[in-house]
């Protein structure tokens, strides 16, 4: 009789275990995402936390499709595991998506990771398994959907799952359900168009969940929902907000994707190219138009100034003192002087400098007192780095801050500056430099005029007497006026 009783118990235990195993294996085939795509993805919500009890059946899952291989790890150790690592084993009939143990132990607790691979992608998902000694009193949330962005007319799917406490009183309530938060902050029942589907884990009956689905989202479906978990006298609430999504915007997905081959590379490449082109165009437009706009703004402010203030510019005999050496005389007399004088209406005073820059200060200090600004034309290739440093120091010692027009390209000048030491480099950085390009290049004249004060207004000039010395200076200039821009 005792033998018969033992055999009956064993058969019953095997039957229960087999039923639990079969039901656990079917976990990944029910309540799946409504999608027909074939790329690698989760087929239902990937739960990050699992609970089980000692000496009870327990299974964990990685519900996916579209993969070629799946590997399992516990705390970094690859499957299969020894008894000291984990008692969980694979269930091949579930395509290796399920691990189970007929009698779970506390040592089975840990982080279980499934690694999925196809031809192009590899993704992982980790489940933290906690094997408890006895049922808990307080509820423990295992999964709650994130906030959703859904187009009007689209589908909505929210999920909440928790380990609830075992009821120990006759009138105690243990339940999980979705509720709607209305605009007046009251919590009420769901609408008739909102469907709630309750779930119970077959391996652990204390784990319950609830799906909230809407087939076609309308305006009344947007807002906040709350997953309310009752466990004896304890109430736990977790909120999810459903936002309106404009067409074409991505909400991050109501499901978790493991990587697909549908990445819009062409659209990304076109977007990147368009962005780069826009940046280059903006930089070119800024370089071309900003100096002109600044110059126009200066003229507008000058016209708005009172007559007395505008007349103060005539306290000096000249607007610009232009100095140069003999080697640059043809360019200065043929282009720079006539353009400043005749086209841009500056009162120009010209001074020819000696070849050696050691005496430039003494040659210019008296003339500079008669002018409002100073322009020095330099050919750095005609001077050694030390001579160039001396020339700049002589010019910077004058009461007028010099504007230096360079007749060689700046990259060559930088190489020479490095040979001349840090003193030359620092002196160059503290000097207003304008690079000469071509007589017809408008950018050069705009930059030069921004560095100089504005010429006096035409009416103010006509009110003053003509300076004989200035007339003699103009008559002494040589060169063709056809170089004007």
Helicity, as a percent range? 25-40%
Q: What's the CATH topology label of the largest domain?
A: Rossmann fold
Per DSSP, the total helix count is: 11
Outline type:
elongated
Please provide the count of β strands.
Answer: 24
Summing up helix and strand content along with how strands pair, one would put the structural category as: alpha/beta
* Percent strand: 25-35%
Euclidean distance between termini CA atoms: 121 Å
Biggest pleated-sheet summary = 5 strands, mixed
**Considering the protein shown, what is the CATH homologous superfamily of the largest domain?**
Toll/interleukin-1 receptor homology (TIR) domain
Which strand order do you get reading across the main beta sheet? 2-10-9-5-6
CATH class of the largest domain: Alpha Beta
Mean pLDDT: 81
Low-confidence runs (pLDDT<50, min 5 residues)?
5-17, 250-262, 464-485
- The total number of structural domains is 3
Work out the radius of gyration. 42 Å
CATH structural architecture of the largest domain: 3-Layer(aba) Sandwich
Layout of strands and helices, then pairs:
Layout lengths: L1 H24 L15 E2 L6 E5 L4 E4 L2 E2 L3 E6 L2 E2 L10 E2 L7 E4 L8 E8 L4 E11 L7 E5 L3 E3 L5 E8 L9 E9 L5 E2 L6 E6 L6 E8 L8 E10 L1 E11 L20 H40 L2 H5 L6 E7 L4 H15 L4 E5 L7 H9 L2 E8 L6 H12 L5 E5 L3 H11 L1 H8 L2 E4 L6 H10 L6 H5 L5 H8 L10
Parallel strand pairs: 2-10, 12-19, 20-21, 20-22, 22-23, 23-24
Antiparallel strand pairs: 1-4, 3-8, 5-6, 5-9, 7-8, 9-10, 11-13, 13-17, 14-15, 14-18, 16-17, 18-19
Helix pairs in contact: 2-9, 6-8, 7-8
């Amino acid at each position: 009789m005792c033998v018969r009783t033992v055999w009956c118990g064993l058969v019953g235990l095997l039957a229960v275990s087999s039923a639990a195993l079969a039901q656990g294996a079917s976990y990944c085939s029910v309540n799946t995402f409504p999608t027909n795509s074939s790329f690698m993805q989760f087929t239902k919500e990937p739960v990050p936390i699992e609970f089980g009890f000692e000496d009870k059946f327990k299974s964990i899952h990685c519900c996916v499709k579209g993969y070629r291989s799946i590997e399992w790890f516990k705390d970094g150790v690859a499957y299969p595991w020894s008894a000291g690592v984990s008692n969980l084993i694979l269930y091949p009939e579930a395509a290796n998506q399920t691990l189970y143990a007929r009698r779970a132990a506390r040592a089975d607790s840990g982080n279980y990771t499934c690694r999925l691979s196809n031809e192009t992608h590899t993704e992982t998902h980790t489940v933290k398994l906690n094997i408890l000694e006895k049922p808990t009193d307080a509820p423990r949330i295992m999964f709650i959907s994130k906030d959703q962005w859904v187009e009007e007319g689209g589908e909505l799917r929210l999920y909440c799952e928790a380990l609830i406490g075992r009821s120990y009183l006759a009138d105690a309530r243990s339940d999980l359900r979705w509720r709607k938060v209305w605009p007046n902050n009251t919590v009420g029942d769901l609408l008739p168009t909102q469907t709630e589907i309750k779930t119970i884990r077959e391996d652990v009956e204390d784990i319950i969940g609830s799906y909230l689905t809407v087939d076609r989202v309308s305006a009344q479906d947007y807002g906040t929902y709350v997953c309310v978990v009752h466990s004896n006298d304890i109430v736990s609430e977790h909120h999810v907000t459903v936002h309106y999504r404009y067409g074409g915007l991505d909400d991050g997905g109501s499901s978790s994707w493991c990587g697909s081959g549908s990445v819009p590379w062409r659209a990304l490449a076109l977007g990147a190219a368009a962005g780069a082109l826009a940046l280059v165009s903006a930089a070119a437009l800024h370089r071309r138009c900003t100096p002109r706009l600044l110059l126009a703004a200066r003229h507008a402010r000058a016209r708005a100034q009172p007559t007395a203030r505008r007349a103060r510019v005539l306290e000096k005999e000249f607007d610009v003192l232009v100095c140069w050496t003999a080697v640059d005389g043809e360019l200065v007399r043929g282009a720079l002087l006539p353009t400043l004088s005749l086209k841009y209406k500056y009162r120009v005073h010209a001074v020819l400098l000696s070849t050696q820059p050691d005496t430039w200060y003494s040659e210019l200090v008296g003339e500079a007192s008669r002018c409002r600004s100073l322009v020095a034309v330099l050919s750095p290739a005609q001077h050694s780095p030390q001579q160039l440093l001396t020339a700049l120091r002589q010019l910077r010692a004058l009461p007028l801050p010099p504007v230096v027009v360079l007749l060689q390209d700046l990259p060559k000048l930088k190489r020479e500056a490095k040979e001349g030491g840090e003193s030359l480099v620092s002196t160059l950085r503290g000097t207003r430099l304008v690079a000469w390009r071509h007589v017809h290049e408008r950018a050069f004249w705009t930059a030069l005029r921004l560095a100089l004060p504005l010429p006096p207004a035409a009416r103010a000039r006509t009110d003053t007497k003509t300076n004989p010395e200035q007339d003699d200076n103009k008559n002494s200039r040589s060169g063709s006026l056809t170089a004007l821009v």
